[in-house]
Amino acid sequence: MSAFPATRLRRLRRTDALRALVRETRLDLADFVMPYFVGPSSSRNEALPGMSRFSVEDLVAETGELVALGGTAVLLFGIPEEKDDEGSGAWDDDGIVQRALRALRAEHPGLVLLTDVCLCEYTAHGHCGVIRDGEVANDETLELLVRTAVSHVEAGADAVAPSDMMDGRVAAIRDALPETPIVSYAAKYASAFYGPFREAAESTPSFGDRRGYQMDPANAREALRECELDLAEGADVLMVKPALPYLDVIRAVRERFDCPVAAYNVSGEYAMVKAAAAAGHLDERAAALESLTAITRAGADLVFSYWTKDLARWL
Ligand SMILES: [Zn+2]
């Protein structure tokens, strides 16, 4: 490699057009999934619009706007009217997500409908599975997750995304749904960045925390083991969550596995930028675009982000 003065890297940075010609990473709306919360009634969160809640009717209108802007995929979280110890609202054929799926399927036939498969929004205690002796019981929870995933698919889901972090859940769902794509939250960390989500989804655990099943933020090699197991169990897409504090993990998963890799740009990552922008410390659009570019550059093929609808306007 020749050095200065023969080499001057600034030559290709001179104009917008030159920079665009040699740009390595580009954002494509087709790679983005907009998460939505659906509940009995709508409530708008002015500070964090991505954390707003929609009734089924309002969600149909909201996704209509997303589709009109070019958005292609949504991920649904449900907030039920009532919760119980098992989280039975999760697999209720007339549950909130199931009703939303049927309405969206009818209204937007081309929209990709993904569903989050977990019990924490539906359990009275807020944990992701059934509790036995003060702990989340892994194997007993699997059956309930399978029921939930099957009911989502019967209501019109195109793909299911189990986020509970129980061992063996991908195999259990794969067994029941041989044809359905599974987007596995394979490397889901016990993160401090989920705060705004838990408020929106009303899923804060009433006791303890989720460190007994979600991953320790300090571990990267373990993430690769999680991914390897989920692929072996039949996952189609591997997800890393959160995204920005775990770019190294996204990169490692990208290098090790040839399947599509997803990243979840979580509520705390979104809220940090929103709060800083509201305080005048940074420009939301520029910071969001830089964040999403970084996640893509790290190796994510698809990105779940609360900025997806904004991105549709920005691109
Ligand atoms: Zn959960």
If you had to describe this structure to a student in words, what would you say it looks like?
It is globular and about 70 Å long. The model has no long low-confidence stretch (mean pLDDT 97). The longest helix has 18 residues, at 138-155. The strands form 2 sheets. Strands 1, 2, 3, 4, 7, 8, 9, 10 and 11 form a 9-stranded parallel sheet that branches. The chain has a two-stranded antiparallel sheet with strand order 5-6. Helix 2 crosses helix 3, helix 3 runs parallel beside helix 4 (138-155) and helix 4 (138-155) packs parallel to helix 5. The chain contains 11 helices and 11 strands. It is 38% helix and 16% strand. The two termini are 36 Å apart. It is of the alpha/beta class and 315 residues long.
Search tags:
two-stranded antiparallel ribbon, alpha/beta, 315 residues, 16% strand, nine-stranded parallel beta sheet, binds zinc ion
